[in-house]
From TrEMBL:
One of its GO terms (molecular function) is ATP binding. This is Tryptophan--tRNA ligase. It is an enzyme of class 6 (ligase). GO terms for cellular component: cytosol. Its main location: cytoplasm. Signal peptide: none annotated. L-tryptophan binds at residue 135.
Length: 327
């Protein structure tokens, strides 16, 4: 039997976060044996926000090495760099012409980002979802493992694909989002109403994959909680809920097990336990990262090979699309 195709991508817009890891990358790693996995560093998406070129170049290599360090195996999976594969920009243009202004206007990520970057609300920020749709549809993906914040974009991808198929016959496979049960929405440790993000302005709100154990412990000790002084999952306890989510995702424990473990104990003990669990989860990743990033030649060999294969696979879909349109 032919394996189902998995596609997912991540932006190299800064160092990878614990949210990216628990919401997405950890699943990428798990899916490698059962599926035919195709992963991309979505650097074309990153320039929707202004980047400093030298920093951008470093971020791309850092992110590539970080993700390999998480356990992506280039013998099993394809892991390429989006800007190296021109079919992505090509299909994005075509799909833009099959995506409605109204649909893009409803995307909550666009609304959030245009508030945040009010001085640069560029057309790319607006059409980001049609590029993402192209990324996925080029590979005829069955499943797309993402965090909960990408649900709306996946739905739009399906709408665009169905619209195109409706006009021209079965060109695209209709993909399915794959959102983890635990870890899909990791929130900022300082403002648990906002998602943990690379671009968090409060440095203590975001745990990075490559933070040292000391820094990780410090961030968890300073995490915002509440005055209830009881480790339980309940409405309004956003800080504690978030810490329980993280602890559960890392240890595999249920909320009930966590509540029992910390019954009668204070938040101090709880935060220390969460911090230590995260430190242990990330330790081997950081060690592998150090080795990988020191070998730029090996990294280049990995992505060049993958870029080439990605180009071949995606060209098959792009050729079909172009013919259907009338080119
Ligand atoms: P970011 O939002 O940090 O810029 P990306 O947009 O590149 O990251 O998203 C990469 C993947 O990480 C996506 O699948 C996204 O859903 C997931 N992700 C991002 N932030 C979080 C979070 N706080 N919790 C869970 N998953 C997340
Ligand atoms: Na995102």
């Amino acid at each position: 039997v032919k394996k189902q195709v998995v596609f997912s991508a991540i932006q190299p817009s800064g160092t990878i976060t614990l949210g990216n890891y628990l919401g997405a990358i950890r699943n990428w790693v798990k899916m490698q044996d059962e599926y035919s996995c195709i992963y991309a560093l979505a650097d074309l998406h990153t320039i929707t926000v202004r980047q400093e070129p030298a920093q951008m170049r470093r971020n791309i290599i850092d992110a590539y090495a970080s993700i390999l360090a998480c356990g992506i195996d280039v013998e099993k999976s394809l892991f390429f760099i989006q800007s190296h594969v021109p079919t992505h920009a090509q299909i994005a243009w075509i799909l833009n012409c099959y995506t409605q202004f109204g649909e893009l206007s409803r995307m909550t990520q666009f609304k959030d980002k245009s508030k945040k970057h009010a001085d640069n609300i560029n057309a790319g920020l607006f059409t980001y979802p049609s590029l993402m749709a192209g990324d996925i549809l080029l590979y005829q993906a069955d499943k797309v493992p993402v965090g909960a914040d990408q649900k709306q974009h996946i739905e739009l991808t399906c709408d665009i694909a169905k619209r195109f198929n409706g006009l021209y016959g079965n060109v695209f496979k209709i993909p399915e989002g794959f959102i983890p049960k635990n870890g899909a929405r990791v929130m900022s440790l300082q403002n648990p109403l906002n998602k943990m993000s690379k671009s968090d302005e409060n440095v203590n709100g975001c745990v990075h994959l490559l933070d040292s154990p000391e820094v990780i412990m410090k961030k968890f000790k300073r995490a915002v909680t509440d005055s209830d002084a009881c480790v339980r999952y309940a409405e309004g306890k956003d800080g504690v809920n978030n810490l329980m989510t993280i602890y559960g995702a890392v240890t595999g424990k249920t909320f009930e097990e966590i509540e029992n473990e910390f019954a009668g104990k204070g938040y101090g003990d709880f935060k220390t336990a969460v911090g230590e669990a995260v430190v242990e989860e990330l330790r081997p990743i950081r060690e592998r990262y150090e080795r990988l990033v020191a070998d730029k030649g090996y990294l280049a060999e990995c992505y060049r090979k993958a870029d080439e294969i990605a180009y071949k696979i995606s060209s098959r879909t792009l050729d079909k699309v172009m013919k259907k349109v009338g080119f």
